[in-house]
């Protein structure tokens, strides 16, 4: 049986650029504070009528522009998102319909910023079980629609975007090696997106928007990125010296730097684009991967380490040879 990996990859970011200075007019904040605390200079916001399924379809269309046959043999679609068009139907079903995959399996996966890496592992499982031949994994978010734009603690952090990958057979010596997935609901109240009525460990709330304890999330993120990165490298039989590129979840440049120290890979071998897109949750890893492939940093045969953390709290790390 051939190994499994990513056989096609696309990405999309909405056209509307929101700079740090754009927040100064309506929030008590300043561009310098945002950049120095987070590393973010600008992010993209979807148009008023552009929702997560549309952003996700943008990434699939990019994938198809690069490889028109990429969706043949796809018989399952997973959309990793925490900003779905609706709680029901799944955003995956809406994306599948728009790209001509009507009738295939489709479901959403809710592990926040870990969602894309989780999705790759779930796709691998569906194929290994014989349920699917190839799986389309989309990480798509329109977080600008769910974040309270009057809350300076969260509004400045997030952006909109999507990535789409087809998972399927790849030649020997390439593709996925190991995954490490985890979650701890005890940290659920450190980072959450409210429902109309929301119950969390410790109580319930009735209000929209993102709730976040930034310092708690920061500490959790550094620890879990470091630990899960080291764990997946050990599981693969690799050390940090074997890693050509780390592709981390892009939440905050300081989190990435601190986590890198924990697994001992220099920033010169780490893909960073949080400065231009902010935190696009499940879309950050495929957006960063696509960018580093397009500019030639990541090349065939390179050893990659993917690491992500998010609401749940959750984490996901994976090793793969590109
Ligand atoms: N502009 C100006 N001041 C601000 C802003 C803002 N936008 N936001 C907060 N402040 C203030 C705070 O109120 C605080 O004031 P105080 O000292 O009077 O209370 C001060 O700035 C310092 O706040 P800290 O929380 O200490 O700042 P910190 O250096 O921790 O940075 C940040 C805050 C950027 C949120 C950081 O904690 C962080 O990045 N945490 C992780 C958040 C994250 O990654 N979330 C997404 C997770 S991924 C997912 O699943 C979606």
UniProtKB/TrEMBL annotation:
UniProt GO molecular function: beta-ketoacyl-acyl-carrier-protein synthase III activity
All copies of domain Beta-ketoacyl-[acyl-carrier-protein] synthase III N-terminal, residue ranges: 107-185
Protein name as annotated: Beta-ketoacyl-[acyl-carrier-protein] synthase III
Leader sequence residues: none
Domain of life: Bacteria
Enzyme Commission numbers on file: 2.3.1.180
Domain Beta-ketoacyl-[acyl-carrier-protein] synthase III C-terminal, chain residue ranges per copy: 233-322
UniProt KW Acyltransferase keyword: yes
Known partners and oligomeric status: Homodimer.
Record organism: Deinococcus rhizophilus
Catalytic residue positions: 113, 249, 279
Pathway it works in: Lipid metabolism; fatty acid biosynthesis
Cellular compartment(s): Cytoplasm
Pfam families, sorted: ACP_syn_III, ACP_syn_III_C
Keywords: Acyltransferase, Cytoplasm, Fatty acid biosynthesis, Fatty acid metabolism, Lipid biosynthesis, Lipid metabolism, Multifunctional enzyme, Transferase
